[in-house]
Prior knowledge:
By secondary structure, the chain is of the alpha+beta class. The chain contains eleven helices and 17 strands.
Amino acid sequence: xxLYKNYFWMFVSIILLSACxxxxxxxxxxxxxxxxxxxxxxxxxxFMASTWDRxxxxxxxxxxxxxxxxQQSCRVLKFKPNWQEVCDAAEQVGATNTAAQRTFYxxxxxxxxxxxxxxxxxxxxxxxxxxxxxGSRHKSKHFAYxxxxxxxxxxxxxxxxxxxxxxxxxxxxxxxGKKIIPxxxxxxxxxxxxxxxxxELFWVENEVxxxxxxxxxxxxVELEDGSRVMVGYAxxxxxxxxxxxxxxxxxxxxxxxxxxxQGIKNWAxxxxxxxxxxxxxxxxxxxxxxxxxxxxxxxxxxGVPLTNEYSLAVDPNTVPLGLPVFLATTQPxxxxxxxxxxxxxxxxxxxxxxxxxDFFWGFGKLAGAxxxxxKQSGRMWVLFPSGVxxxxx
Length: 393
């Protein structure tokens, strides 16, 4: 969802070059010496065919709780090649018949284990959730921090039609005269409220809670009359995500084990005069939209509602969205096994790489406590339709 700022001018150059009638001539680099080739590190395959018995607890796992997530994925995948028959077959299986569901998966899918470029099969599994904020549709002294919708002047340029190698990468910026320049970063937005005037959806009471709403990507706002509204991710300013927890550790303000969501909130309570300066070290800024109250959950990157504890945020450059993912990890802040069949239905600015995922815990304080303390090691298997090569959508 997000582009690193140091790619920005490269993309602008591509746009300018593509405007020429004659394509630029790119010189062919000289072939590397054989000795240098031999010294190059070997990149491991992203996926490797596996077997069902390698998935921990597969034969005894209760699959029924993940079935609603499959149904959500099929709302999108059934229109893609190789998926119509799979989704049709799923409709014939009972929602609570876990034995039939296991047979369904073993018949229609093949598990592929995910590997990192260095050949390792372990990666970081974190958690996220849907927070509740107190707010209003009108600014006041009590509700002073705005939740913004997508600005009118935010440009999103997809270059993949001209340069297929840039698939999934989008340029975000704004016009200044005839030039495209980076969009405002967090510090610029926070320092001048006139930049996004008129784009306020709601006003909330707590600055750090608003910051974490942007990290989570969705949430609910309880208004003054007690009613609640849902807000979901609508866009981002194009700047890279920077972890303020890591910044606090580097500054000597927190120990590594204290740099959780709750640890950061505790620091913010004790240092209100330093909070804005800290938050501004993360230049990424997320914009929202109000969602229909009838949704069963927040919308993920697939455009379907997430399923509590059975939806994952992944790096779509590695794991195709919508697919089943078998996750083998441990409970938050624990060594107790957490082996579960989930679905890749969301993305995140900090979720990059092969074996890397964000576990969606749902809504509320308990979900927040679990998400905030989850930083576990884990392994992943992606289930591809049988006979289909493991490639991206």
